[in-house]
Amino acid sequence: MEELPELYAVFQGEVATVTEYGAFIKIPGCRRQGLVHRTHMSACRVDKPSEIVDVGDKVWVKLIGKEIKDDKLKLSLSMKVVNQGTGKDLDPNNVSLDQDERKRRTFRDYTSQKITLEAVLNTVCKKCGCKGHFAKECFVQPGGTKYSLIPEEEEEEVAATGCERDKKTNLTDDIPKKRKK
């Protein structure tokens, strides 16, 4: 197998072909070519790679990725992290490459997942009589306004049906009492 440069190695290559999405660079010492995508040609936006490079130009590139796809080795190169005049690596710790990778990741949509909070204590405060906290955490002043947690929808429904039952039983209790008088 051919001797390929190591990952993140900087070398000078020759532009073999220019396409609308980037340029293919001949790698010295082997017959392979690598692609410099137009997003890796310059720190500025590049719409037409042909405005940046021409076939036969010598450019400094950095090998930023190796991928085997369909039994073919694909090499990704970058020109924007290498000084084109001196060949000096402008990103020796690969920080900007990591940032570019994070930008390309797709955002996962978590809006469909319901968030439930399980932080309500099943206690009653001795100071104010409200549910959900202890007396040492209570902020109510003696004789002041009392605050309690808002019941959840399910609890409201259960409480509402319970109140309706109580009203019905109270009505049925009141009817015989009226008859006795």
UniProtKB/TrEMBL annotation:
Organism of provenance: Turnix velox
Protein's recorded name: Zinc finger CCHC domain-containing protein 17
Signal peptide: none
GO BP terms in the entry: RNA stabilization
CCHC-type domain mapped to chain residues: 125-138
GO cellular component: nucleolus; ribonucleoprotein complex
SUPFAM superfamilies per the UniProt record, alphabetical: Nucleic acid-binding proteins
Annotated keywords: Acetylation, Metal-binding, Nucleus, Phosphoprotein, Ribonucleoprotein, Zinc, Zinc-finger
Xref: Gene3D superfamilies: Nucleic acid-binding proteins (2.40.50.140)
Highest taxon listed in the record's lineage: Eukaryota
InterPro entries: NA-bd_OB-fold, S1_domain, ZCCHC17_S1, Znf_CCHC
Region (Disordered): 158-181
The protein's assembly and partners: Interacts with PNN. Associates with the 60S ribosomal subunit.
Biased composition (Basic and acidic residues): 163-181
